[in-house]
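Before a colleague's protein record goes any further, I have to sign it off. My question to you is simply how this chain folds and whether the tokens agree. I do not need a full report, just your reasoning and any doubts. This is what I was given:
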Amino acid sequence: MTNTTLTAAAADLGRRVRGPVSLPGQGDHELERAGFNLAAELRPALAVGATGPADVRAAVAFAADHSLTVGVRATGHGGGRPADGGLLLSTRRMDRVHVDPRTRTASVGAGVRWQQVIDRAARFGLAPLNGSSPLVGAVGYTLGGGLPVLGRTFGWAADRVRGVGLVTADGRSLHVGPDENADLFWALRGARSGFGVVTSMDVGLVPLASLYGGGLYFPGDRAARVLHAWREWVAGVPQETNSSVALLRLPDVEGVPDPLRGRLTVHVRVAHTGTPESGEALLRPLRKAAPPLRDTVGPIPATAIASVHEDPVRPLPYDEGSLMLRSFDESAVDALLGAVGPDSGEEGVAMAEVRHLGGALDREPEHPRALDHRGAAFSLLALTPSTGAAAGRPAGERLLERMAPWGTGLRFLNFLGGPAGAALAHEAFTPGTRSALAEVKARHDPAGLFPADHFLPASPGSRV
């Protein structure tokens, strides 16, 4: 399609949708394609700022008529698949949230961030199963599996999905649920994208008004002592206790607390849903492991759950790599320390986090989903700064390769961000799941309107 033809066609689409339609260099085009992860840069031929399902249907029909692939961006935290040369749907305007306290359900639009749901649900003493950053989009996080801060207590966020609104490749709006379009309900909850454009989602909430949570920060030279203490500690904690440990190399910049700035630190994150008294007693062994630089653990309202991990709140370029672990024994701790600890000489990994799984995460789901991580005991996340498609990858991948002996062989889709991480997303699924996903894809999007190379190979003549 020539630039002149595309300009005329975009103008026609602009008359059929309520939201803005822009070409590169026009209007809010830069804003529409921008995301939290600055390394995941998109270069679409045009962008549509959708305001609702009608705009999505019109944009999808337009893309099909003009042989353009369709990409979707809400908050842009993950890597996403490049929408280069295609049509980009920005869903950030679709930010409606409704909470039904009677059914303990939240209905969210495609552009909703978790903090919106957290604040709305808290009015009724309820909480969603959000991840470590409440700035992340609720839909993409949940449909990628959704590993909550409170996962050991309540399970995967994907298992709380009750229904999804979806616009398919033929321009129809479908309701997807366990008893309606069940194949899509299975595929979307785990594979996240590639089958259509999600316009809304209904998720179950849990009763939770407060918790005992926060972080313990220790100096990097005490990393071995703290990591071994945490490894022994998690072996005996109840299902109500959720935690992770991270080796952090935070930059020497304004906004980073002085005790943590420009040095290696160890961050133990804790979220306990029992009483503050039981949480205090449980945490004593960790507090005795070494003198903390900073201790923020205490009773907090559910609305302050972001304080557990204290994730960045400003956009930055990064790559994420992950590995699900069968175990995290003494030798695994030593291997992690050898790769990124204080004596490793490795400064390319900004964060290496090991998260304790098990508990409710191992529960048999009520409805099957495309998520292959039951039985994983821990997850490992490697976050590296990135300025391009390959930048930052070697350090993170070296760490993951070193930890492979303790791995399940699978990665976690939600922990694969940036260009380097996104390129490995097919490794989040077993061969059997990838094959089943390909069958669902062939039924609902045979022409490959919605790129899906995160779980299946390109086929001749398709746009996948």
